[in-house]
C-alpha cells in the first residue's frame, strides 16, 4: 500500500497511532512504528525531561519513523518544542490550539507538521499556515473532542472538500473495514487511539484496559462541555460531573470538581471510580488486550478482505 500519507511519513501502512495522554509512551510508539505504522509519543501528560527520556528510548527501540503529539495549550510548550528540535524528532502532530505560531517554527527546522481539527473552517486555516497534513477527528473519538459533535462520517468528506492536503481520519476507527470506509470518504490514512490504548505496550493501567474490554454501546459519553468537551466512561466521577451540571454548576465549580491529575488517577493509576477514564466509542468493539503487532496484522488483513469483498460483491450501478 502506498499513498501520500505513506510517502509523507515514510511508513508501510497509512495507520497512525494517537498520541494519547497516559497511554502513549515510547513502548507503544516504537511498537506501532516497528509494525509498519507511525507511532506517536503523547507529550500532553509528560514533563519536559520525561518527554526527552521517551524520545531517546523510542529512538533506541525502533529504526523506523515516529513522532510526538503536542497539545498546543500545554503550559510548558516552549520547553517541549525545544526538546523536540534538540532530539532530532522529524514528525510533530499538534492539537488543542491554533497552529499559526508553531507550524512555521517547526517547518523552518525541517519537521513535518500535522494538525488535528474538528471542522472544515479550522482545516482551511491549517492549510493557510502551511501544515503538511490534517487529522479530521470526529465526535466518536475518546478524550478531548470538538464542540461541533460532528461524526467522522460527515466530517471527513467535508474536510476533504475544503482542503487538498493529505487527510487522516480519526474518531471511531479501529478495524480494517473502518479503514476502508475512511478511504471511501476521502481520507488517505487513519489515526487510531482507543484500540492502541488497550494493547500490551500501552502505558495505561491494566485495570483500565480490562475495564475497556467489557464496555458496550453507550458506556461512553461526551461531557464537561463548559470547559473542554471530553468523552469519558460512565463511572462514579462521570456521575458526579453530570449531577453538578444538572444543578447548573459554573465552569469554575466544574474545574474545582475536576481538580488536578484526574486523568492520571484513572488511566495511569487505575482508580476506576474517581478517575477520569477517557476512551472512544470504538471501545465497544474491543474485547481483548493484544500486542500491537497482532492488532496491526488484524487491521491490514481486515482491510484486504473488505477490499476483496467489495470487488466481488459490487459492480457498477
Features:
TIM Barrel; 317 residues; 8-stranded parallel beta sheet; 2 domains; 43% helix; alpha/beta
Explain what this protein looks like in three dimensions.
This protein is α/β, with parallel strands linked by helices and 317 residues long. It folds into 2 domains: 4-204 and 287-313, Aldolase class I (TIM Barrel, Alpha-Beta Barrel); 206-282, no CATH class. Helix content is 43%, strand content 15%. The protein contains 14 helices and 11 strands. Strands 1-9-8-6-5-4-3-2 form an 8-stranded parallel sheet. Strands 7-11-10 form a 3-stranded antiparallel sheet, with helices on one face. It is globular and about 55 Å long.
Strand content: 5-15%
Distance between the termini: 27 Å
The fold-level CATH name of the largest domain is TIM Barrel
The SSE string, one letter per element, is: HEHEHEHEHEHEEHEHEHHEEHHHH
Number of domains: 2
Estimate the helix proportion, in percent. Answer: 40-55%
Strand order of the largest sheet: 1-9-8-6-5-4-3-2
What is the 3D form? globular
- Taking pLDDT < 50 over at least 5 consecutive residues as the criterion, the unreliable ranges are none
Average pLDDT: 95
The CATH class of the largest domain is identified as Alpha Beta
The DSSP helix count reads: 14
Give the SSE layout.
Blueprint: H1 4-9, E1 15-17, H2 26-34, E2 39-42, H3 48-61, E3 66-71, H4 77-86, E4 91-95, H5 102-107, E5 112-117, H6 120-129, E6 133-137, E7 143-144, H7 152-162, E8 167-170, H8 176-185, E9 189-192, H9 194-197, H10 206-212, E10 220-223, E11 230-233, H11 236-246, H12 251-258, H13 262-268, H14 292-313
Parallel strand pairs: 1-9, 2-3, 3-4, 4-5, 5-6, 6-8, 8-9
Antiparallel strand pairs: 7-11, 10-11
Helix pairs in contact: 2-3, 3-4, 6-7, 8-14, 11-12
Amino acid at each position: 500500500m502506498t499513498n501520500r500519507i505513506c510517502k509523507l511519513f515514510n511508513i508501510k501502512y497509512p495507520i497512525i497511532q494517537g498520541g494519547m495522554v497516559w497511554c502513549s509512551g515510547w513502548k507503544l510508539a516504537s511498537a506501532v512504528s516497528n509494525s509498519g505504522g507511525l507511532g506517536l509519543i503523547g507529550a500532553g501528560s509528560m514533563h519536559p525531561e520525561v518527554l526527552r527520556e521517551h524520545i531517546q528510548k523510542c529512538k533506541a527501540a525502533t529504526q523506523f519513523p515516529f513522532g510526538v503529539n503536542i497539545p498546543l495549550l500545554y503550559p510548558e510548550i516552549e520547553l517541549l518544542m525545544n526538546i523536540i528540535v534538540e532530539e532530532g524528532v522529524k514528525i510533530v502532530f499538534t492539537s488543542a490550539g491554533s497552529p499559526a505560531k508553531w507550524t512555521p517554527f517547526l517547518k523552518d527546522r525541517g519537521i513535518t507538521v500535522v494538525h488535528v481539527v474538528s471542522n472544515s473552517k479550522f482545516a482551511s486555516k491549517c492549510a493557510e499556515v502551511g501544515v503538511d497534513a490534517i487529522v479530521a477527528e470526529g465526535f466518536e473519538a475518546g478524550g478531548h473532542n470538538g464542540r461541533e459533535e460532528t461524526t467522522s462520517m460527515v466530517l471527513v468528506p467535508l474536510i476533504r472538500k475544503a482542503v487538498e492536503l493529505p487527510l487522516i481520519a480519526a474518531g471511531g476507527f479501529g478495524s480494517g473495514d473502518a479503514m476502508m470506509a475512511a478511504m471511501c470518504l476521502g481520507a488517505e490514512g487513519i489515526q487510531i487511539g482507543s484500540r492502541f490504548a488497550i494493547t500490551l505496550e500501552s502505558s495505561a493501567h491494566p485495570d483500565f484496559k480490562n475495564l475497556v474490554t467489557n464496555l458496550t454501546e453507550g458506556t461512553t459519553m461526551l461531557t464537561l462541555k463548559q470547559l473542554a468537551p471530553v468523552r469519558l466512561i460512565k463511572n462514579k466521577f462521570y456521575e458526579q460531573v453530570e449531577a453538578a451540571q444538572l444543578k447548573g454548576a459554573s465552569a469554575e465549580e466544574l474545574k474545582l470538581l475536576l481538580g488536578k491529575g484526574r486523568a492520571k488517577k484513572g488511566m495511569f493509576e487505575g482508580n476506576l471510580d474517581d478517575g477520569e477514564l477517557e476512551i472512544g466509542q470504538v471501545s465497544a468493539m474491543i474485547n481483548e488486550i493484544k500486542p500491537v503487532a497482532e492488532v496491526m496484522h488484524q487491521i491490514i488483513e481486515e482491510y484486504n478482505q473488505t477490499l476483496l469483498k467489495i470487488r466481488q460483491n459490487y459492480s457498477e450501478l
